[in-house]
Design goal:
Elements: H1 3-8, E1 16-17, E2 20-21, E3 23-24, H2 35-46, H3 58-77, E4 86-89, H4 92-107, E5 113-117, H5 126-135, E6 138-142, H6 152-157, E7 163-169, H7 181-190, E8 195-198, H8 210-213, E9 217-221, E10 232-236, H9 238-243, E11 254-257, E12 262-264, H10 278-294, H11 296-317, E13 321-324, E14 333-338, H12 343-352, E15 355-356, E16 358-360, H13 365-371, E17 376-380, H14 387-404
Parallel strand pairs: 3-15, 5-6, 5-7, 7-8, 8-9
Antiparallel strand pairs: 1-2, 4-10, 9-10, 11-12, 13-14, 14-17, 16-17
Helix pairs in contact: 2-10, 3-10, 4-5, 11-14, 12-14
The structure holds 4'-deoxy-4'-aminopyridoxal-5'-phosphate.
C-alpha cells in the first residue's frame, strides 16, 4: 500500500491546525473523503441533477441510472443476492429504525423477547425502546468478558420460546471488538430467530459477505467508509423485506394511491419514500471503487499494524493507561483513559497538537455504565493513517498526560 499516494487523494489531510499537520484519528465517527467521491457529488449537482424515477427526460434518466448502478455496486460489494435487497436510507441509524419499526412491529408483542448486547450504540438500542413502549416486549442484554468479547455462553442461554429477534453490532465503536456474528446468526437461526447486524464499524474495515454470514439484515453508513454524508444502506433478505410493512409513506413507495386503498411499490422502493439523496448514493459507488482499488484486506492489514504498534507503545510508555477492549482480532479502535485524567481535557489538549480524537460516551452509555466510567478518549484508524501519525499521537498522549498529572 502506497500510503503517500492514498493521502494525496484526500485534500483535507493536507490541513494544518495550530501550526502542525492534522493527525485525523476520529475515523470511527466519520472517515475523510477522497477526491473521486467529492467529484461525483460535484458532478451530480453540476451535470446530472434531476429527480430520479420520475422523468422521461434525459437528465432524470441519467440520475436514475447513476443511483441504480450504485445499488448494484453496493449489492456486489456485500455479496447480496440481488440489488432489490439493498434499501437506501440516511444512515445506519435510519436503517435500524426501519427494521425496528417495520420488522420489530411485526414480530414483537407483549411477553416476547429481543436480544441485544451490552456494547450496542444508541442507534441499536433506542429504536427498539421506542417500539417497546408500544408493544411491551422484554429486552435481554448479552454481557461481555473483561477483555471486551461477548459472553457467548450467556448469549446461547438466552434463547427460549419467546425469543423473536436478535440485533447486534458486528464491531463495537468503543471497544473495537469484532463479534463472531456468523456463529451468533447460526445460533439464532437454529432457534428460528432472525438476526439484525449493525455493520457501521465493520464495512469500512473488513470484508463483509451477507450471504456467508447468513445475516437477515445488515445496516451501514456511507460516511464512515470514505463516502458522502447522508446515505446509508439496509440490506435485508428478500423473504423478510417482502413480508414487512413500509416504514414511511409518501411518493415513490407506492404502486397506486386512492383514498380507499393504497398499494405499495416493488422492492426495494417500498422502503424508500420521498426523494432519496440520489447524488450521495451515486457518490457512494465511488467510495466502493476507492476501497476495492486498495483492497479491503490490505486496508485491514494496514490498520491492524497501526493498532498493534500504537497499543504496544501506549502500554509501554504511558504510566497509568487503561485501554478498554482488548479482545483478540479487534479492529483499529483504541479507547483509553490515563490515571484520573478527564477524557475531555485529554481530547482538548491533543487537539491543540493537531490531533483529532473523540471523547465522551461515544453513544454507548449502557456500555460506559457497565465499565464503571463516564467516557473515554478514542483514537481510530483508517487506510490513510501512517505510523508517523501513530507515533505523533503516542507522543501527544505522553505530553498531555505529563501536563495533566
Ligand atoms: N452503530 C455504530 C456501531 C456506530 O458506530 C454508529 C456511528 N457512530 C452508528 C450505529 C450510527 O451511525 P450513523 O450516525 O451514521 O447513522
Amino acid at each position: 500500500m502506497d500510503i503517500s499516494r492514498i493521502r494525496e487523494e484526500f485534500p483535507i489531510l493536507g490541513r494544518r491546525l495550530y501550526g502542525r499537520p492534522l493527525v485525523y484519528l476520529d475515523n470511527t465517527a466519520t472517515s475523510e473523503t477522497p477526491r473521486e467521491v467529492v467529484d461525483a457529488v460535484v458532478n451530480g449537482y453540476t451535470v446530472t441533477k434531476a429527480n430520479v424515477h420520475r422523468g422521461v427526460h434525459t437528465l432524470s434518466q441519467e440520475a436514475t441510472l447513476l443511483q441504480e448502478e450504485a445499488r448494484r455496486r453496493v449489492a456486489a460489494f456485500i455479496n447480496a443476492s440481488s440489488h432489490e435487497e439493498v434499501v437506501f436510507t440516511r444512515g445506519t441509524t435510519e436503517a435500524l429504525n426501519l427494521v425496528a419499526s417495520s420488522l420489530g412491529g411485526m414480530l414483537l408483542g407483549e411477553g416476547d423477547e429481543l436480544i441485544l448486547t451490552v456494547m450496542e450504540h444508541h442507534a441499536n438500542i433506542v429504536p427498539w425502546q421506542l417500539l417497546q413502549a408500544l408493544k411491551g416486549f422484554r429486552l435481554r442484554v448479552v454481557p461481555m468478558h473483561e477483555d471486551g468479547s461477548l459472553d457467548l455462553d450467556a448469549y446461547r442461554s438466552m434463547f427460549n420460546d419467546r425469543t423473536r429477534l436478535v440485533s447486534c453490532c458486528h464491531a463495537s465503536n468503543v471497544l473495537g471488538t469484532v463479534n463472531p456474528v456468523k456463529e451468533m446468526i447460526a445460533e439464532a437461526h437454529a432457534h428460528g430467530v432472525p438476526f439484525v447486524v449493525d455493520g457501521a464499524q465493520a464495512v469500512p474495515h473488513m470484508k463483509v459477505d451477507v450471504i456467508d454470514l447468513d445475516a437477515d439484515f445488515y445496516a451501514f453508513s456511507a460516511h464512515k467508509m470514505y463516502g458522502p454524508t447522508g446515505v446509508g444502506v439496509l440490506y435485508g433478505k428478500r423473504e423478510w423485506l417482502e413480508k414487512m410493512p413500509p416504514y414511511q409513506g409518501g411518493g415513490e413507495m407506492i404502486e397506486s394511491v386512492s383514498f380507499d386503498k393504497t398499494t405499495f411499490a416493488e422492492l426495494p422502493f417500498k422502503f424508500e419514500a420521498g426523494t432519496p439523496d440520489f447524488i450521495g448514493i451515486s457518490a457512494l459507488s465511488k467510495a466502493i471503487d476507492f476501497i476495492e482499488r486498495i483492497g479491503i484486506d490490505n486496508i485491514a492489514a494496514h490498520e491492524h499494524e497501526l493498532l498493534r504498534h500504537t497499543t504496544e507503545r501506549l502500554l509501554r510508555e504511558v504510566p497509568g493507561i487503561r485501554i478498554f477492549g482488548q479482545a483478540p482480532g479487534k479492529c483499529a479502535i483504541i479507547s483509553f483513559l490515563v490515571g484520573n485524567e478527564h477524557h475531555y481535557d485529554m481530547g482538548m489538549l491533543l487537539d491543540k497538537l493537531g490531533i483529532a480524537v473523540r471523547t465522551g460516551h461515544h453513544c454507548a452509555q449502557p456500555l460506559m455504565r457497565s465499565l464503571g466510567i463516564e467516557g473515554t478518549v478514542r483514537a481510530s484508524f483508517a487506510a490513510y493513517n501512517t505510523i508517523e501519525e501513530a507515533d505523533a499521537f503516542v507522543e501527544g498522549v505522553k505530553r498531555v498526560s505529563a501536563m495533566l498529572e
